[in-house]
Design goal:
Order of helices and strands: EEEEHEEEEEEEEEEE
Number of helices: 1
Number of domains: 1
Shape: globular
CATH architecture: Sandwich
Distance between the termini: 16 Å
Radius of gyration: 18 Å
């Protein structure tokens, strides 16, 4: 499966379901932040980018990524939706002294690069953020498994503005379960490992980022604890992420991969998963 060697963009600051998009990398923070709710108040339907309606992020080794927004007065991002009641519950039970497991997995404990798994099989993976050796550096370890790929219908995309642009495209919903097993220091600003969908021939499928809710593709968040500077993801908590990929007529999204791009090394060549990603399939 093709991989991109330049997905090294990162962001240290906290954000609410923030999608950070560069010409070659997308980072998704799977946590609800009560201080930013702009996305949940969006009522207008917008497809950002070309012709002021659609953003297509291109790179030399990665298919374009499309952002779309569904009209919903109460919609939070479909990637990590959670109810206000759930967030309130987390806040009411939060501890001001969060417990973090500093025993991040050693490289030898991670699932070996190139491991091929069936849907539902669990891999051990890591992500990090911040400059290594600095006070802001954080490292997280996860148990993760792609559990299923669900084929949607072209009609699922009909509610988006300029739906005609998706003519002939079929959405596929990739569901991934994560359990946060270790965190080197408190933080809520670290992303879980990113999964890529692949077409029948192994090439990367086009990714669709939805700002809003899709009934067919709902996600959950890691639990949080602590307040202010001690606000952090809760070690031991779990989440499910649903990601949308598109397949042209006659094709399908059949497999997925994780190329380790969420763990930044001093030299991208040090990333052993770049050329030998973890894969999931039937």
């Amino acid at each position: 499966m093709g991989t991109c060697p330049h997905r090294e963009a990162r962001r240290d600051s906290l954000s609410f379901e923030k999608i950070v998009i560069s010409s070659s990398h997308i980072t998704h923070f799977g946590v609800s932040m009560k201080t930013t709710s702009t996305l949940s108040r969006k009522k207008t339907l917008a497809v950002v980018g070309a012709s002021a309606a659609l953003l297509v992020t291109l790179s030399a080794c990665m298919p374009p990524t499309i952002e779309v927004t569904k009209p919903s007065s109460q919609a939070s991002s479909a990637q990590t939706s959670s109810s206000a009641a759930e967030r309130a519950s987390d806040e009411n039970t939060a501890s001001t002294k969060p417990t973090t497991d500093k025993a991040a997995a050693a490289p030898g404990n991670l699932t070996a690069p190139g491991t091929a798994m069936k849907f539902g099989e669990v891999a051990v993976a890591q992500t990090n953020t911040g400059a290594q050796g600095s006070e802001k550096y954080r490292e997280a370890t996860y148990d993760m498994a792609v559990t299923k790929i669900v084929a949607g219908a072209e009609a699922d995309l009909s509610e988006f503005k300029d739906a005609a642009k998706f003519a002939g495209q079929t959405p596929y919903y990739v569901f991934t379960d994560y359990k946060l097993t270790a965190l080197s220091a408190p933080t809520a600003g670290i992303s879980q490992p990113r999964v890529t969908g692949h077409l029948k021939d192994g090439t990367e499928a086009q990714k669709l980022i939805v700002f809003g809710t899709m009934d067919q593709c709902k996600s959950t968040n890691f639990k949080t604890e602590g307040k202010d500077d001690a606000f952090t993801l809760l070690v031991g908590s779990s989440m499910t992420s649903c990601t949308v990929f598109l397949a042209p007529a006659g094709d399908a999204v059949t497999t997925t991969s994780m190329d380790g791009s969420g763990f930044i090394t001093a030299d991208y060549k040090d990333n052993k998963f770049r050329k030998n990603p973890l894969t999931w399939g039937k």
